């Protein structure tokens, strides 16, 4: 019998009995002298059991207690009674785990022997599996030596030829990783030789062979093997994958439905079916076949349903006020699925916590579907169930608005009022919520519209003060260059005509998307001061890069009552240091530039509030 020489210094690591058998207790002695741990005093052992390749995933690294005796460490391990071919150990500093002795990368081995003293099958090949099929070596921050792994596999197959079916692909994969000169032809010859030795290769063997070819970049041979595999298993995974991809790539909705139904009939337990079902669910929605969607979803097991997808669909339908009864059905199904749903592979962290978060999302959608149908009495308790009055800072302003409006319609304002007020106070209230709160307050006994305005102003007092302080820091003081431009009506617009007034200049162009997006907010700001003769808004068209008629056409299509001076030569925008558009410039009554901002935040209310505050501050002479 040929024995593999494992270079372990006997005085460094030895064990007893020297030919241990299954079920026996093995005592070992480790001497760290001449090892990387020679100067360490806190040493522990780590070991992993090994056996046949398909059993490696069952073995987890485990610590073993060591007792120091002089300069050596002793310990004991119990060999299991079955399915183990040996143990592999490393030693490390228990306080600095990356400081380890790996026996020059080969680890310390206790192979199991049979009654005759011969190493049992897998006693050598299993060592290679520890390197290639477990993370044990990586735990110590090391990598294995492909040359040593190839040696171990070759020795196992030489000693136990009947185990070749279990090791042939691992050996060839190791040779690919080894990358010795000429490895490609050698590995390919090994693949062909093995397959030729099998009268009827299994599907798994063909799959493995195809993967080996792919690892070397030989995709034609890999594909040829997969086609061969399809012939062996006409209803196997590869055929299912091809059919699944065909359904995904089918652009015609009618043909896609037919193909899916055929797939479901032929492969009712396919692993591809859940993802295909989610795909079809999305298809019904995107094709606006809501009735068909309800029927389809009703036929599916919970494991094939994406609760968050149904939630998104139901909320969109509710928000758009279409198919509301169907939206209610969808969200109810989503809630039922979530109750029994196991942790998805995509979920991270604590599943129960994540599940509660998703439940809140679904409750929000359920409340929205009921509210949009006028079922306020049913919707209000749902809002109460998921809304958190103590976390208004992180709440969605739109949800707070809907909660308060629902409370209004169900005579529960007293419960919702504190949260609405808090939202206003910290700037997390929508304009609709503030209007609803003010209008409700005005209707209370003894109140007036003036009192309601004062009530709202008082709620926003701290917020306005903070905004005022913030904007005060942003005020500038630069000369305002004189200008004279012609507007779209042919009128002369001259800065000299606005002495003593606050002038808001908005530099824009028709091609500028952010400029146009900011116009509704700018309209609101202009409307706020429309009765004030000391405030003027001018929407200076600049950098247009096209015919003036384009500006005329834009203004004719829209209802903005803007004064639009034309800065066709960009002289005014350059004079006012406009670096990009949209740029808003505010000139104070003293004729000096006091404020400049570029871009658009996308928040109309913020734009209106900030610009209005600047205008008011300048009117006050700040």
TrEMBL record:
Example of a GO biological process term: response to stress
Domain Thioredoxin: 474-620
Protein name as annotated: Alkyl hydroperoxide reductase
GO MF entry, a single one: antioxidant activity
Higher taxonomy: Bacteria, Pseudomonadati, Bacteroidota, Cytophagia, Cytophagales
Top-level taxon of the source organism: Bacteria
UniProt xrefs under InterPro entries: AhpC/TSA (IPR000866), Thioredoxin-like_sf (IPR036249), Thioredoxin_domain (IPR013766), Thioredoxin_ResA/DsbE_sf (IPR050553), TPR-like_helical_dom_sf (IPR011990)
Signal peptide: none
